[in-house]
């Protein structure tokens, strides 16, 4: 909001809320809210589109098998009387974790959203947890008002200026960098990611479903490949061309090839290519110590702290 402007009239608007329908309109309205909100601030407030696309597509098969109504039960939308989306609740696992995404001009709505979360979605749970930016003092104040307890800094959102990465990446001459669109080697690509994250659910069905997401492009699914055809490191960039920003997720390296600089090399190459394609900023979130060490070594221009808050019920 602009300073000095009176937005009190917004509070008098008739606002309706409902579960996520599963239809394209809801999905793209939610996605567009994230794009619009990023463009209004110097710092991120909500998710970027990569994480949202992953929520709907990468997790789809596993979640639907467990609960046919997973998406309807774990996303809730708030709209104006004109049917404009102004905020939504979302949970990636349907268990205790959730986040609130809100249009920057309707932040007063967060309290209603939080009360709904506690009263409706949290019913029957022992606790609920969330993560948000440490600089978001308004949200900290709100959550502490409702007895959420801070668990401290649990990770960072790293922001990179892609113009700082313009040189070709130097890797072992026996290895090469390729995109998935150049190889379509499902077996090696999926196997390396499965081993990286120790998740047997990462299979071809999961990959092909994720690839249906509007933000997925095999041209931005990068990998470093050994002379024997083994994917040794990978990263995937999700481009928001309107805001000239990319979210990079996932990032990983094969357990047999760690601590050899391959993850750093594939990320650097990704930054170089993003810069050449007009993307000026990139974000990566890191939580483990090894991830934080890697992302720090790439010299981010900003490093936003992420706080975890918990409410015991």
How many whole angstroms does the radius of gyration measure? 20 Å
* Classification by helices and strands: alpha+beta
**β-strand amount:** 25-35%
- The level 1 CATH classification of the largest domain is Alpha Beta
Distance between the termini: 34 Å
CATH superfamily of the largest domain: Gcn5-related N-acetyltransferase (GNAT)
- Kindly report the CATH topology of the largest domain: Aminopeptidase
Q: Characterize the overall form.
A: globular
By CATH, the architecture of the largest domain is named 3-Layer(aba) Sandwich
Number of helices: 12
Major sheet characteristics: 8 strands, mixed
pLDDT average, as an integer?
Answer: 93
What is the total number of structural domains? 2
Question: What string, H for helix and E for strand, traces the elements in order?
Answer: HEHHHHEEEHEHEEHHHEEEHEHE
Task: Say how many strands there are.
Answer: 12
Strand order of the largest sheet: 5-12-6-11-10-9-8-7
Binned, the helix content reads: 25-40%
Q: How would you portray this structure in words?
A:
The strands form 2 sheets. This protein has an 8-stranded mixed β-sheet with strand order 5-12-6-11-10-9-8-7, with helices on both faces. It has a 4-stranded antiparallel β-sheet with strand order 1-2-3-4. With 313 residues, it is of the alpha+beta class. The model is unreliable at 1-7 (pLDDT under 50). It has 2 domains: 8-154 and 308-312, Gcn5-related N-acetyltransferase (GNAT) (Aminopeptidase); 160-305, Gcn5-related N-acetyltransferase (GNAT) (Aminopeptidase), CATH 3.40.630.30. The protein contains 12 helices and 12 strands. Strand 10 (245-253), helix 11 and strand 11 form a beta-alpha-beta unit. Helix 2 (24-39) runs antiparallel to helix 3 (49-58) and helix 3 (49-58) packs across helix 10.
